[in-house]
Design a protein that fits this description.
There is one protein chain. By secondary structure, the chain is an alpha/beta fold. It has one domain. About 10% of the residues lie in helices and about 15% in strands. The chain contains 1 helix and 4 strands; from the N terminus they run ββαββ. The strands form 2 sheets. A two-stranded parallel sheet has the order 1-3. A two-stranded parallel ribbon has the order 2-4. The radius of gyration is 15 Å and the shape is elongated.
Length: about 50
C-alpha cells in the first residue's frame, strides 16, 4: 500500500483488496487466490470519504 503526501481520510474508512476472482464459481472461487496486482496506491492530495 502506498499513501502519498497530503492525503485525508474520513471516519471508518476501509482499504480492501479483492481476494477472489468474481468470474469463477463455487469451489474454484475459493481455491483461486490472486497474489499479484493487489496494490493500493492513493495519490497525493486525495480525500477518502467516510463509508
Amino acid at each position: 500500500m502506498e499513501i502519498r503526501d497530503y492525503v485525508f481520510f474520513g471516519h471508518d474508512v476501509l482499504l480492501l483488496t479483492g481476494t477472489h476472482d468474481f468470474r469463477l464459481k463455487n469451489a474454484q472461487r475459493q481455491a483461486n487466490r490472486p497474489t499479484t496486482d493487489r496494490n493500493i496506491i492513493i495519490e497525493s492530495g486525495a480525500w477518502i470519504a467516510s463509508r
